[in-house]
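Postdoc handover notes: sequence design on the structure in folder B. Input tokens:
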């Protein structure tokens, strides 16, 4: 219990108690934190927020557990720093776990502090930021610690789609603790000190007799490349905190607000002549779709998300004439831009996030289809591909699709086609909109006829060309109204910006229902 010593003023007493709270677990533990290459909770807050904007809550709150020696482990704040602040002048709420205090472990009191700022964020309609660095539940408190996690999870769910939630994993995050970040909008991990897993290496070895290191089990590389749990991997904590600031610059305060507008120095009518020659001379050759994105967005600035996961599709933020826009683009540089399980899940989640927070969507399409094979089928490509379809069909924000080259089969439909309520669909002159490529289609359509041909190879080449001339162009789709216009690639930026301008007041009402049943 914090008591005032005799002979000192109230002001002196407050100052001493504040200094004690700001020391967390003490100088030695702070030094140990620094030796690991980690900052303290308070040092992180200073870097993250605008200067002198942080207002702390519950600095002196402490736990009430006296079991297993915890009566001797009482620190003001109980291992988490909470409060409000500003980032680029915009209000946010935050919590930063303090590993110097009982390993940042979560107690009932610790959870109450986090729940308080989450509740305030939702009622105030502002983002909530979490800086995670915790050994997990405080075992000495048993079920009370577990109850604390449950209270946090519930609030994460209630806040989802209401206010932006962003978490940086700046140390350990294990056991049930991983589910709070998993529910949030974005997760950032540092390359060296971050890890997340349900069960640690010791338990894995004991239960299934598998030897595995912390990094191999749940390091940043694992979660940004394989599992898709984390959206960003950064070199150090300073970069992680800057990434949070950048993310927020594209996102609104809440689901009823519009994203921030920044006056652009880039001409809205700028022509992009480089796009007239960007396409290779054959559909079998790749090109980097990021070059297309950088050509048309304001000042060539594109902020990519989840770049190491589901690499056959690119997602991220840009600005078009100063307005925040979410971009989804097939990437021919990786597996020809095919839709597989990972890319479908990645893009579907990004679409839903943008739709929740009123961020318009620009889709750059060059897709040969869905990934074939037993591995994809057995792991649920049907179910996972349907997530992306569902997300586009459900989204009510302005949605513009540019078909640049291939748009084949079911993947054409799924990539925000007119049939899923795209607002505008444009096509470049090279675009091919068909059930499949000309060669495969000819082999199916003319299979029987080819058996009677004198020269089968020549016959099939002629039929392939015939099919190509009949279907592998955008004019058939334009005749049926499936695309709105065939455009000069050089005018893509100008046309997209003008089209978004027409949709600025778009309103679309979905059927009244409790919620849909997305194929999870």
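Designed sequence:
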């Amino acid at each position: 219990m914090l008591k005032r010593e005799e002979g000192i003023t109230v002001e002196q007493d407050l100052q001493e108690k504040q200094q004690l709270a700001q020391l967390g677990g003490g100088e030695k533990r702070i030094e140990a934190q620094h030796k690991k290459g980690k900052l303290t909770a308070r040092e992180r807050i200073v870097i993250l927020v605008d200067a002198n904007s942080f207002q702390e809550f519950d600095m002196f709150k402490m736990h009430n557990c006296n079991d297993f020696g915890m009566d001797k482990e009482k620190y003001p704040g109980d291992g988490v720093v909470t409060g409000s602040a500003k980032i680029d002048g915009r209000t946010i709420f935050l919590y930063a776990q303090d590993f110097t205090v009982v390993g940042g472990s979560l107690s009932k009191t610790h959870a109450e502090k986090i729940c308080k700022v989450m509740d305030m964020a939702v009622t105030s309609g502002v983002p909530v930021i979490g800086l995670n660095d915790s050994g997990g539940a405080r075992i000495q408190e048993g079920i009370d610690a577990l109850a604390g996690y449950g209270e946090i999870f519930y609030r994460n769910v209630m806040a989802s789609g209401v206010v932006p939630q962003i978490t940086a994993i700046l140390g350990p995050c294990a056991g049930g603790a991983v589910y709070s970040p998993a529910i949030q909008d974005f997760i950032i991990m540092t390359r060296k000190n971050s890890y997340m897993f349900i069960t640690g290496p010791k338990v894995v070895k004991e239960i299934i007799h598998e030897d595995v290191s912390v990094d191999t089990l749940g390091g940043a590389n694992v979660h940004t490349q394989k599992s898709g749990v984390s959206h960003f991997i950064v070199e150090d904590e300073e970069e992680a905190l800057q990434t949070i600031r950048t993310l927020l610059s594209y996102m609104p305060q809440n689901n009823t607000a519009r994203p921030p507008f920044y006056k652009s120095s880039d001409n809205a009518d700028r022509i992009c002549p480089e796009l007239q020659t960007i396409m290779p001379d054959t559909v079998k050759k790749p090109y980097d779709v990021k070059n297309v994105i950088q050509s048309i967005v304001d000042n060539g600035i594109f902020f990519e998300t989840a770049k190491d996961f589901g690499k056959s599709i690119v997602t991220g933020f840009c600005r078009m004439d100063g307005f925040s826009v979410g971009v989804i683009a097939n990437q021919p540089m990786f597996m020809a831009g095919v839709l597989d399980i990972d890319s479908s899940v990645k893009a579907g989640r990004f679409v839903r996030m943008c739709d929740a927070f009123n961020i318009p969507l620009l889709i750059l399409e060059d897709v040969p289809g869905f990934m074939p094979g037993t591995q994809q089928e057995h792991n649920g490509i049907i179910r996972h591909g349907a997530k992306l379809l569902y997300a586009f069909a459900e989204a009510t924000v302005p949605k513009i699709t540019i078909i640049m080259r291939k748009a084949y089969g079911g993947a054409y439909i799924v990539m925000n086609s007119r049939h899923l309520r795209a607002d505008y669909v444009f096509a470049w002159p090279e675009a091919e909109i068909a059930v499949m490529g000309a060669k495969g289609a000819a082999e199916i359509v003319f299979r029987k006829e080819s058996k009677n041909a004198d020269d089968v190879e020549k016959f099939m080449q002629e039929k392939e060309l015939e099919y190509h001339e009949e279907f592998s162009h955008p004019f058939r789709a334009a005749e049926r109204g499936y695309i709105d216009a065939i455009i000069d690639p050089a005018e893509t930026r100008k046309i997209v910006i003008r089209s978004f301008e027409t949709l600025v007041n778009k309103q679309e009402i979905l059927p009244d229902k409790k919620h849909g049943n997305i194929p999870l």
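Context for whoever picks this up: Residues 108-124 form the longest helix (17 residues). Don't rerun without checking with the PI first.
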